[in-house]
Amino acid sequence: MNVKVLMSDVDGTLLTSQGRVSDLTREAIKNVREKGILFGLSTGRDVHSVRNSLKDWGIDGLVDAIVGTGGAEICDISMNVERSSLPLDGGAIREIIRHFEDMDVNFAIPSGGILYAPKDDEHIRMLSKADRIPYRVVDFDRFLEEPRPKVMIVCRPEGIDQVVERSKTFHSEEYRAAALKTASVLLEYMDPGVSKTYGIRQILQLHGLTMEELCTFGDADNDYDMTVNAGVGVVMANGSEKTKSAADYITDDNDHDGIGKFINQYILCER
Fold it and tell me: Global pTM?
């Protein structure tokens, strides 16, 4: 494997169910970076909240780059580069909210390490607790006067299929937006040009690297595109069937050192 950079999803992939990186995986990341291989994160979480969480996760000082908000934000820590692109217009988000507002859902927009929501209910409290990110209820009419990276529709697990079906009937004459189920309780809308691959390519370009030199780790449907496009795409045993179908390798699940075991067996053994 001609791997020079590793990019990992966070939830359901790098983090265990207890919300930390396992000792074995942390040591593997440390060892692989000592061999000159970059390690980064590619996640739906916003960059600010990720940087604030690195110490809690046990990997502070071990992350070279972050692709956040599903690819709309990048932060290359090693090169001190941070930028965002392709936000959703506030008008587009208003149309999306109107399309789903009769359903038992809430809406969340991550920004600056906070989840912003138009109302306080069990859905936003659940998401805030699960992701360990604080939330704030604000006036969305004013909040959406500026473009935002994305909007998440939050629901109960038993309601996600109905939310996905409703998304198929969304249409806007004025705005472009693409929907993707990213968790058992989340459907996200972003600009159609945004993907994890889009953000990762920007990081690679900063280092003069190519997708062929990339190894990715993922689990959910929003990891499918980076799995397909990476030189080596690795998917967790707990991953979705769609993303598993694109994998070059299936590794153990996030609670059984899947990333650490793969690094030790396939990356470090060749160095």
Answer: 0.91
